[in-house]
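Job type: complex structure
Entries:
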Amino acid sequence: MNLSLDLMLQLAIILPILSSFAIIAAGRYPNLRESVTITTCLILIYLVVNLYQGLLADETISVFWWELLPGLNVSFDIEPLGMLFALIASFLWLVTTCYAIGYMRSHNEKNQTRFYVCFAIAIGAVIGLAFSANLFTLFIFYEVLTLSTYPLVTHAGTEKAKQGGRTYLGILLTTSIVLFLLAIVGTWFVAGTLDFKLGGIFSDDVSIFVASALLVLFIFGIGKAAIMPFHRWLPAAMVAPTPVSSLLHAVAVVKAGVFTVLKVCVFIFGLDLLAILPTTQFLLYLAAASVLLASIVAMRQDNLKARLAYSTVSQLGYITIGALLATSTGVVGSSMHIAMHAFGKITLFFCAGAILVSLHKSKISEMVGIGKQMPITMAAFFIASLSIIGVPPTGGTWSKWYLMMGALETEQFIIMMVLMLSSLLNIAYLLPIPFHAFFPNLTAFKPIEQGASKVIQEKQKIDAGSDIQIKEAPLPSLIAIVVTALGCLILFVHPQPLFELATSVLTGRG
Amino acid sequence: MLIGLFNNWVVIVLMMSGLYIVIAQGNLIKKLVGLTIFQTSVFIFYISMAKVSGGSAPILDQEISVYSNPLPHVLILTAIVVGIATTALGLSLVVRIKESYGTIEEEEIQQQDNLQNQKENKVEVKE
Amino acid sequence: MIAHLPILQVVIPLMAAPICLILNRSKLAWLFALIVSGVSCLVSILLLQQVMTTGVISYELGGWQAPWGIEYRIDELNALMLLIISAISTIVLFAAPKSIDKEIVKGKHTYFYVLYLLSLTGMLGIVATGDAFNVFVFLEITSLSAYALIAMGKKKQAVWASFQYLVMGTIGATFILIGIGLMYQMTGTLNMQDLSQRLPEVAQTRTVFTAFAFVIVGVCLKLAMFPLHLWLPNAYAYAPSIVTSFFSATSTKVAIYLLIRFTFSVFGLSFSFTTVPLQTLFMTLGLVGIFVASISAIYQHNIKHLFAYSSIAQIGYMIVGFSISSVAGLTATLLHLFNHALMKSAIFLALAAVAYRVGNVRLDSLRGLGRQMPLTMAAIVIGGLSLIGVPLTVGFVSKWYLLSALIEQGWWPVAVLILLGSMLAVIYVWKVVEVAYFKEPVGTPVKEAPIGFLIPIWILVLANVYFGIDTRFSVQVAQAAAESLFGGAL
């Protein structure tokens, strides 16, 4: 195929959205429907990889669609950061679809067609968001993403799902329409343009006061980045089926948030301006507080998905910190952390879903000793935990390394302390889970949560020698888990391409 | 000054009493009467405004050089027609209100409506 | 023929109304009314085209010259308004026969079309004419037919709502009449163009102030601006559904047009905004209106009530834009006027379809309709998203303009309040969505609305999306109209 790169760029955005029609049409035949999704994933990956190569070959890839309002275009442009995000999102979409097929079928979920349709639209929005050439286009896709994921969050249709959906939509729409939109209009008015430009778009004589106010509006307004106190939607969104939580609420939606934060910091404000704004420091501490508090809350959660959700809130804080440090090292760290955390967290969620499907367990206190029944899953869980914590031999090491370097460079010692402390907390709330799963008889690690008596009961059951069989998740789901867990390992050994993309964010082309 | 503008005083008194009746009276017919008085005051206002002192009726004649302004008269003719239409429509509405509510007192109608609403909402809550 | 377009615009529906009565068959009268409305729409398109290319059209009625005879004056603003009114009227009429079958007694169908055409005539007349007294006459034509149309509603509350509207509407119209009389007293002319030239000389007199006050209060009664909005919710809620969708899109918009015409053209910008503290007053009332009406909307059990309150809130946005008194602010108001007509007619028409299938529009009856009437409910959802102001819908475009107009003036707090107001819209729209999609249906299942409803509904919904994506037409016309209003004032 000899498609021009510009055409590929447009296809990459439109294709998932178009595929939703095909999915509706094929709705009656589940196998056909799923093959439509998989085919779309494969084509999307092909397109994005081609675009990646185009970027490496230093080609300018940009598309102008139309002018929505005078001076406000819907247009797209590829730069390394967006490329990185698009690569992760499209690759993980394939993996998640694979996982979802196993999960949704064995869980007998209803309305699967609607599920796949909304999923496809959400991915289209993510790709559009990643390749946006200006803040305005980004905002449009940001909102499309919010709305298209709402039916996914409320998929179960129960009262609880409805409540979760309310919180989800309420917070995301409120922050984006009240604060984010105001910040955009303000920027448009002050700078006269919304195009992303390396080094920022504000002129040198911009009033510090106005710029600081705008920064605060942006950071709070981008609710998807889940900075406290606007993080409540993320735990609320956990009522969704696990594939949704794993791809959207560990990767696509939340990463869209921090991606937007990075974009705003690097391409709207520019690191030089960012460094001198008085509110930057304040926001840094806020993000640091968010990191710590979320970790502490995570420790107290007994529901595995809720714990992972708070862990995500905490990890997102890292990325925001990296952006706000306003140094190139920090930005590199943040960009890499987008990828590393994506692989780690999606694996963890996959595992949580697998445990739910095979053993019908969602509480951590019930998961003692399940390592014998689900060895592969729990091994993957272990690897992913290491990656989140940031220990070799997993990918998370690199991003944390750069984030620490960034903090050190700017002499933000408090931030450094927070990062280290948080890593310790990560260990405390993640590692006991696989540990207890494999070694139910060791009492050295007392579970932190209240369910200690339950633990003992479970242990007794196991001791009683009830016949333990291997009961892993359905095969497609298992494959997905293994792939992402391996991803965590490979990213440690071979982070080069990722690193190059991340460093080229600040130099322009790849 | 006060005497010179006495037509305005008449207009104002009529207007205010009309408006007061509309607001204060609960009987729908009385409301309409008030509305008509209110409108009539405006008609008088227009007609008196057109009077030119010493002017005669606007019928062309060689001996007369000063005429009253005929335009407001014409305008108000239209307004009177409109006023009659409004009154007629209002009265027919009152007839229908009487048919369906059995009363033409504002308070009683409001009461019936409130009861109805409460009933509907209760049904909703029960379900 | 082309030269007589301005008068044809008004006369065609006026003449057609009695003919409807002669036809005396429901279907026949409908077809005829539809054709007439379609022709009106065509005329307004031609007029708009003509105005955009050659500038203001002035038409002397009966050949009498302007200050003495009645002049019809069509500039960009008028042309835009004419198009909105006639286009919405035509689209809404498409769905009329089915809806009326259910909601109006059999023998009265032809009367319905007669009154419908008369109110259309009135609105088109108000907009087309350049004569202040003529405005009053057409205003009363619209209002009288509106009272009768509302009283046709099935429930007994309809008659009562109509009566209340009649009292309020007559007071409002009479106020306008007084204002016009006082202006005539000071200037001796009724032609708006002429008035605008002669009023500045006498601007500082008490009479002109009084005239201004009467006109503004009268117009505000008609446009249901907070706190003069009390007649609107019941009138909209109990009127036949078709009437609601037509009026929600047009009648208050015509009143907004009058407000703009009187303040900007007749009294002039400097008088309205410098001599009289209209800015502070309207800004405050607009904002309070947004919040009070939105919060009331949240607590409604009847969806027509809910969206009627939302209309009052949306009028608040237009008033805020108007009170900025800059080109940008006025552009925002005009855009929102156009956009809100699209949203509300779509939503109310979809509600008409719901009423047709379910029999009522209580919130509770919507249970499970998301599954049973997917296309109709999707229309309400898209209309609702547009009300909230989500990108790619028309609501976003006007919100964007309103925000930038406010920020241009440096009124950040107001901008924040406006945005908070739209969050209230999220709440009341989502209340409807949750009931429709998450509650289990009760009672007998219903089918999707008939195609006769779906086509007009989806024309409007797609227009909501189309004009949210391709804004060239609406922005261009609104901007031209706003600029010409300011040009006239300077």
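Summary: The CA atoms of residues 203 and 271 of chain C lie 7 Å apart. Chain C is about 80% helix and 0% strand.
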